[in-house]
Amino acid sequence: MITLSEAVRLFECIGAISLLIQTIEFLSLSAQTGREGVWTWSVQRKDLAHANPVTQKIFDVLFEDGVLRGHLWLRLLLISSLFLGSSSGTSVLIFTSTVILLVRWRGAFNGGSDFMTLVFLTSLMIGNLAAPFLGTETAWTVALWYVCVQSLTSYLLSGASKLLAGRWRDGQALTYFLDGGIHGPLRAGSIYRNPRVAIGCSWAFMVWECTAPLVLISQQLASIWCAIAVAFHLLVFRFFGLNRFFWAWVTTLPAIVYCAGGPMPM
Predict the structure, then answer these.
(1) What is the Cα–Cα distance from 44 to 56, expressed in whole angstroms?
(2) In this structure, what is the dihedral angle of CA atoms 173, 176, 181, 186, given to the nearest 10 degrees?
(3) Cis bond before residue 132 (omega within 30° of 0)
């Protein structure tokens, strides 16, 4: 059985790895986001054309090349502190930093992984900010349940949407997406072009995703389900290069295992 303190520490450390990778990626894009880059702020600031002048000026300062790089280096330090444990101050600062960066990228840099990153950071704030009022154990139980519900819901909705789509049920969608992967298109003799294999893989993924809520029955069942989740996200990374998705969702797994068969927040 995983304890609350163990779940929180795993949650913080895996989340820190996820955030570090994201921040290093942002730093590696400095040339592209600079004044001569393809994602220069002078172009993207047009999204704020109808904002008041003060708001425009604030973001002009925040997204000036030197300021943005300084922000990212400071962010690395703040995130690194999560390996020693989170606090109210660091969780709020990292959350604010993340929102600022999302504004820079018009609301999302990498879709669903950005949403799950915000879920992680919101949970950190719940656990730390609510502790003085609810007590540490109750606050972190609420925080982990918040993550657990968000994560399991995302899997359930993903599986249900596939189940309702005929092209997923007959395996065609799987082959189509793999053809568009970073190593695609698939070879003519690829096993994934075999209709039976494609259908089998599709239904395996759909059933696994749709059964997500059942993991709450016990920690043993949750542990098995989460191990499959790690393998699933590794496959997604292998075929599509979505490393942010891997870390964003793996971060939620300690919360799922802890909440499975565990205490509900009172």
Answers:
(1) 11
(2) 130
(3) no
Q: Which amino acid is at 122?
A: T
Answer whether 0.85 is exceeded by the pTM: yes
* 234 contacts 204 by C-beta, under 8 angstroms: no
53-62 helix and 65-80 helix, angle to the nearest 10 degrees: 70
What Å distances lie between residue 214 and 140, 157, 223, CA to CA? Answer: 22, 14, 12
Residue pair 3/136 in contact (Cβ under 8 Å)? The answer is: no
**Cα separation of 230 and 227, whole Å?**
5
Question: Kindly report the CA angle at 115 between 43 and 185, in degrees rounded to 5?
Answer: 80
Evaluate whether 12 touches 147 at the Cβ level (below 8 Å).
no
Helices (H), the chain: 4-28, 30-33, 41-44, 53-62, 65-80, 88-104, 112-129, 131-134, 136-163, 166-169, 172-179, 195-210, 219-240, 243-250, 253-259
Mean pLDDT by 10 residues, the chain (266 residues): 93 98 94 88 86 91 94 98 97 97 89 94 98 96 97 96 94 91 83 93 96 94 96 92 93 97 69
Amino acid at residue number 57: K
Locate 186 and state its tokens. Answer: 């698939």
Per-residue tokens: 112: 């669903």
Is 260:216 a contact under the CB 8 Å cutoff? yes
Q: Answer for the pair 251, 18: CB distance below 8 angstroms, yes or no.
A: yes
